[in-house]
Amino acid sequence: MPNPPTKLTVRQLEQSDAAAVQRLYEHAVGRAAWLPAGVKADANFARASQGEAVFVCHGPEGRLVGLLSVWVPESFIHHVYVDPEFERQGVGTALLSSLETWLPLPWHLKCVIANTSARAFYATHGWIEVGSGNGDQGPFVLLERRSGPGPDASLVAPTRRPLGAG
Question: Distance between CA atoms of 80 and 60, rounded to whole angstroms?
Answer without folding.
Answer: 19
